[in-house]
Amino acid sequence: GAGVSQSPRYKVAKRGQDVALRCDPISGHVSLFWYQQALGQGPEFLTYFQNEAQLDKSGLPSDRFFAERPEGSVSTLKIQRTQQEDSAVYLCASSTRPSGGLYNEQFFGPGTRLTVL
Amino acid sequence: AQSVTQLDSHVSVSEGTPVLLRCNYSSSYSPSLFWYVQHPNKGLQLLLKYTSAATLVKGINGFEAEFKKSETSFHLTKPSAHMSDAAEYFCVVSVDYKYIFGTGTRLKVLA
């Protein structure tokens, strides 16, 4: 069956450029998450959606980062005026249950590797 | 605050020998705990999860983990390593909906 997909898989941007990263969650999954994984580190939470509502954006590192999920399915993470410190793998995950689901497994996509030159 | 500590950043074992990857957690509540594996250029895959039904949890590919509340540990084990086990392993504590990852342990399997 189809899992979580992300595109592009690799993105190279010049400093100052805007980028948009796409996530297609598993069909019917209510919850969607974005994580940032710096080289040699574990993923860190960025933001969480329940359907189209962004319930938590506490992990977004700056106001240059923006995420949306307008129809409650596909999500886009946008980074404006990219900086070198934004270079990382951006992971998307989805799960079946809404927030508060104990033992709620998240299913991860392959990630988008962003390199800012 | 909830957190997770993976005690070893790198572990090397010989093929056919046991694997032990250590994880300690800190949680104010009864935790949800997971182990994920990440192969190069692949997505994170769930190995196993602690559901409170049993302290010894069996996962895929022969992996197990034991939840020890008194030691706040959730170590991952496998009796016999295979070359295909070489990967990065992450211990995760879940706080409501949010995952908090450890820094990862890179497992190397020597022929």
Secondary structure elements and pairings:
The complex is a heterodimer of chains A (117) and B (111).
Chain A: E1 5-7, E2 10-13, E3 19-24, E4 31-37, E5 44-50, E6 53-56, E7 65-68, E8 75-79, E9 88-95, E10 107-108, E11 112-116
Chain B: E1 3-6, E2 10-14, E3 19-21, E4 23-26, E5 32-38, E6 44-50, E7 56-58, E8 64-68, E9 73-78, E10 87-95, E11 98-101, E12 105-110
Parallel strand pairs in B: 2-12
Antiparallel strand pairs in B: 1-4, 3-9, 5-6, 5-10, 7-8, 8-9, 10-11, 10-12
Describe the fold and architecture:
The complex is a heterodimer of chains A (117) and B (111). In chain A, 0% of the residues lie in helices and 47% in strands. Chain A is built from no helices and eleven strands. In chain A, strands 2, 4, 5, 6, 9, 10 and 11 form a seven-stranded mixed sheet that branches. Chain A has a four-stranded antiparallel sheet with strand order 1-3-8-7, with no helix packed on it. Chain A starts with a strand and ends with a strand. The model of chain A has no long low-confidence stretch (mean pLDDT 93). In chain B, strands 2, 5, 6, 10, 11 and 12 form a six-stranded mixed sheet that branches. A four-stranded antiparallel sheet of chain B has the order 3-9-8-7, with no helix packed on it. In chain B, a hairpin with a 5-residue loop joins strand 7 (56-58) and strand 8 (64-68). The N and C termini of chain B lie far apart (41 Å). The model of chain B has no long low-confidence stretch (mean pLDDT 92). The A-B interface holds A 3-4, 31, 33, 35, 40-45, 48, 56, 91, 93, 95, 98-111 and B 32, 34, 36, 41-46, 49-52, 90, 94, 96-104.
